[in-house]
């Protein structure tokens, strides 16, 4: 591993330059991990988009379907950027692609992360409203509200990512081109701006996370207060099954936050202070461990594009039923084709047998 940031080197003008804090394990681990996430994420999210497109006739699904569609688009944007990140890590953190692509791929990573966080939060609020105020939720203009909220989330996220898009994102570290890394030798004013930006993002994340936790606790409390009724005469199904599905959904949403986003935002604050040399009194081992932990949390955020389709399955019964019916039809189609082929071969064999007897 590279020497931590507490050490210095001398550059041409004899001024001390801080060395880049690195974690060499990522150059092996990240290409393998992203190499798996890329095809799986592409297949899962393209299929989710296909299912959501075929569910557009269901009026009851209008609002949450809009949120899910937008979340899927955000995940696909992240997946589209993965080949460039794979190449970056294969080249030991040296950006070989055209410089503008660094800004674009870095922006897509940011957009996916915070679009996902906001859309998952909105889905939680939507489910809370559907459970606690079902009549009001059903009578309101769901499609219009879903479209306005989705547009607002995209505007906020894209506006926040403008700083990434307007800069090349490339920082020179000797002869290496770092993509959105290596700010340790910038001017103090820029370092303070970078640090302040990170801490504002961290604070906003925990505000949204708290809102998600509160919404899901209120959903769970409302569901658990509902009495367990008898099975419906027409279907024989217990309404308790719906309650269990709703509880699984809120556990899935919180699970995505805890696995993908919470570790990153917990580590991000101390890591920023470390990597920008704002805590020189920390030991070298502390700097290195923080950087190693930060790299792992970046990897965990990449799981988000694989876990989001699970949220869709638990958020709505119709999404899950569509998938079940689709796979049942595919299986029946294969069995039908196999039976047709078997029948054709049997008829051909019988025909040949009759022909030989006649001869």
CATH architecture: Up-down Bundle
By CATH, the topology is: Rhopdopsin 7-helix transmembrane proteins
Oligomer status? single chain
Distance between the termini: 83 Å
The DSSP helix count reads 11
CATH class term: Mainly Alpha
The low-confidence parts are 1-15, 234-239
Provide the CATH superfamily. Rhodopsin 7-helix transmembrane proteins
Can you walk through the features of this model?
It is a single chain. With 359 residues, the chain is mainly α. The chain has one domain: Up-down Bundle (Rhopdopsin 7-helix transmembrane proteins), CATH 1.20.1070.10. It contains eleven helices and four strands. The protein has a two-stranded antiparallel sheet with strand order 1-2. Strands 3-4 form a two-stranded antiparallel sheet. The radius of gyration is 26 Å and the shape is globular. Interacts with ARRB1. The chain crosses the membrane at residues 32-52, 64-86, 106-125, 146-165, 199-224, 245-266, 296-319.
Topology:
Blueprint: E1 8-10, E2 16-18, H1 26-54, H2 62-90, H3 99-132, H4 134-139, H5 142-160, H6 162-166, E3 170-173, E4 176-179, H7 188-225, H8 240-275, H9 284-302, H10 304-315, H11 317-358
Antiparallel strand pairs: 1-2, 3-4
Helix pairs in contact: 1-2, 1-9, 1-10, 2-3, 2-5, 2-10, 3-5, 3-7, 3-8, 7-8, 8-9, 8-10, 10-11
For this entry, give a set of tags.
75% helix; Rhopdopsin 7-helix transmembrane proteins; two-stranded antiparallel ribbon; 4% strand; mainly alpha; 11 helices; 359 residues; cell membrane
């Amino acid at each position: 591993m590279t020497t931590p940031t507490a050490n210095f080197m001398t550059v041409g003008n004899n001024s001390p330059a801080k060395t880049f804090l690195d974690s060499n394990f990522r150059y092996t681990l990240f290409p393998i991990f992203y190499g798996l996430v890329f095809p799986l994420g592409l297949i899962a999210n393209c299929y989710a988009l296909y299912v959501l497109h075929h569910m557009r006739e269901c009026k009851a699904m209008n609002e949450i379907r809009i949120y899910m569609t937008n979340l899927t688009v955000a995940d696909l944007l992240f997946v589209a950027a993965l080949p460039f990140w794979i190449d970056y890590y294969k080249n030991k953190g040296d950006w070989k692609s055209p410089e503008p692509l660094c800004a674009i791929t870095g922006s897509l990573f940011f957009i996916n992360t915070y679009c996902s966080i906001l859309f998952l939060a909105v889905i939680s609020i939507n489910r809370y409203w559907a459970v606690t105020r079902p009549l009001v939720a059903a009578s309101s203009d769901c499609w219009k509200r879903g479209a306005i909220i989705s547009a607002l989330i995209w505007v906020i996220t894209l506006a926040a990512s403008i700083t990434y898009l307007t800069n090349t994102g490339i920082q020179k570290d000797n002869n290496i081109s770092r993509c959105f890394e290596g700010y340790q030798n910038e001017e103090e004013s820029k370092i303070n701006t970078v640090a302040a930006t990170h801490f504002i993002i961290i604070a906003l994340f925990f505000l949204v996370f708290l809102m998600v936790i509160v919404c899901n606790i209120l959903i769970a409390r409302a569901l658990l207060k509902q009495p367990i009724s008898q099975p419906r005469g027409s279907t024989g199904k217990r309404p308790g099954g719906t309650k269990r599905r709703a509880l699984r959904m809120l556990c899935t949403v919180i699970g995505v936050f805890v696995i993908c986003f919470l570790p990153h935002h917990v580590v991000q604050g101390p890591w920023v202070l470390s990597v920008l040399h704002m805590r020189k009194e920390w030991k070298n081992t502390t700097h290195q461990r923080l950087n190693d932990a930060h790299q792992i949390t970046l990897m965990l955020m990449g799981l988000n594009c694989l876990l989001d389709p699970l949220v869709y399955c638990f958020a709505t019964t119709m999404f899950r039923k569509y998938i079940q019916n689709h796979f049942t039809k595919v299986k029946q189609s294969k069995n039908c084709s196999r039976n047709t082929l078997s029948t054709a071969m049997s008829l051909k064999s019988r025909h040949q047998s009759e022909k030989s007897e006649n001869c």
